[in-house]
Amino acid sequence: MQPTPPLTTLLDAATAHVRTIPGFYVRSRPHGFAAHICASPQNLCQVRQLTSTELMAQGMKADTVDSAQLVLSELVGNSVRAYGDHVPLVVEVYVTSHGVAVNVHDPDPGTLPRRRATPLDSAEAETGRGLGLVDLLAPGWHVRRSAIGKQVRCRVPAEPSWN
């Protein structure tokens, strides 16, 4: 296995093309990143791509990367549905000794995500399965209040290559 390049090099390379996008700021953190975004389809696409780039560089398997991207998309989507387009969010993705942490902070400490009774295999339902998918991919997710509102904290189980 080849050594992983320094995180700042990866982030610089991965975010070089997004530095001119309004509402998108990335900072490194150990084994991952924190992205401060103004929620939009373009910024979600960029943070998903950054997630893939960073997790692959950290030695995560493709299925773990896909799961982390799906969890991230569901959590960001829930925030946008609750608060509208352009809500300010902080998205953290980083590798831990137990898997991949995916945390999404939003500005409202009062509104908590709710699971709907929609079965995951429902052929008729068009919405309502997101938190059910998060339950499957990141069991034990939870919500806590934070300095900027609330934080939904998830961990996608995986074994990092540096364990």
Structural description of this entry:
The structure is a single chain. With 163 residues, the chain is an alpha+beta fold. It is 34% helix and 27% strand. The chain has helices at residues 7-15, 41-57, 62-83, 130-137; strands at residues 24-29, 32-38, 88-96, 99-106, 142-146, 149-157. A 6-stranded antiparallel sheet has the order 1-2-3-4-6-5, covered by helices on one side. The longest helix is centred in the middle third of the chain and has 22 residues, at 62-83. The mean pLDDT is 81. It holds the Pfam family HATPase_c_2.
Strand percent estimate: 25-35%
- The parts where pLDDT drops under 50 for at least 5 residues are none
Describe the largest sheet: 6 strands, antiparallel
Overall body shape: globular
Q: Would you tell me the structural class of the helices and strands?
A: alpha+beta
Let me know the number of strands: 6
Average pLDDT? 81
The share of residues in helices is: 25-40%
Strand order of the largest sheet: 1-2-3-4-6-5
Q: Rg, please?
A: 16 Å
CATH superfamily: Histidine kinase-like ATPase, C-terminal domain
**CATH architecture assignment name:** 2-Layer Sandwich
Top-tier CATH class: Alpha Beta
For this structure, the CATH topology is Heat Shock Protein 90
Ends apart, CA distance between termini:
14 Å
How many structurally independent domains?
A: 1
- The run of helices and strands is HEEHHEEHEE
Total number of helices: 4
At a glance:
The protein is an alpha+beta fold. The chain is built from four helices and six strands; from the N terminus they run αββααββαββ. The protein has helices spanning 7-15, 41-57, 62-83, 130-137, and strands at 24-29, 32-38, 88-96, 99-106, 142-146, 149-157.
